[in-house]
Amino acid sequence: MTTMTDPDPATASRLVDELVELMRLEPTGTDRFVAQSEDLGTPAVFGGQVLGQALRAASLTVDADRPVHSMHAYFLLPGEHAPIEYTVDRVRDGRSFTTRHVVARQEGRTIFEMSASFQTASDGVEHQIAAPEVQAPEGLMNELAQRVAVRDRLPAVWRDKGLAPHGLEFRQVEPLDPVNPVPRASANQMWVRAIAPLPDDPLLHRALLAYASDHGLLRAAMLPHGLSFFSGQVRVASLDHAMWFHRDFRIDDWLLYSTDSPNANGARGLCRGSFFTRDGQLVASTAQEGMLRLKDRR
Prior knowledge:
Blueprint: H1 9-22, E1 26-29, E2 32-35, H2 47-59, E3 68-75, E4 84-93, E5 97-106, E6 109-119, H3 143-149, E7 168-172, E8 188-194, H4 202-213, H5 219-222, E9 234-245, E10 255-265, E11 268-277, E12 282-294
Antiparallel strand pairs: 1-2, 2-4, 3-6, 3-9, 4-5, 5-6, 7-8, 8-10, 9-12, 10-11, 11-12
Helix pairs in contact: 2-4
């Protein structure tokens, strides 16, 4: 098994091409598409994959000069590592705004649904929150290298695909033990980028940012309790996911993903995230509530 943490340019390009192919949808009828799935070693299909593919499906039914500005999604059933069918309902086409509703199905089961809104570019007031002052990504260890360093302590299911190189790279600003993190405040920052150049396709960059937004977001709700995805102590599942796109960006340039969790109770945790460019522009915001159930250690 390959566990490269810093792939050569040819391998990096291949990995990014695989990610681009994952976001490719095959038309199967009017406003109907099918896409393939990747297996990251998780029991169910990665939710970010479904977010990105659904957003791309909706975007393909809207004029290119009217980009997405928000999306609101619900994960209804765990998806399998198998093709997914997407059906788009053209809810509304207005003078400035367009609304689409997307349903994802596998074997006749509805596993996911999403509403997305698109807007023609308009002028108006502008402001944004300031980006956190953090260490630059150069010199930080990527998450894959952190996992490889503790591979003997990872659950067996994560020692294969969970250690495989990927087209997106994440670097934690404050490294933490992937298996047994020390309890700390929920605020967390990490850098993300595609490891090779991407095509000049804004739809692709937005779909891949939606994909990336589901990576580690629920971690913010586990940090105060010293829990992790790899600890075996907690069952974690995304319940819903919202995202707002504010400004243009490229995901093959470094973006800072700053997250926190304002609340957890009732076996659910609420997490929020903001994406900033290196020069401090806020390009997207996200929020997600997830199920967090402690396992009975007996």
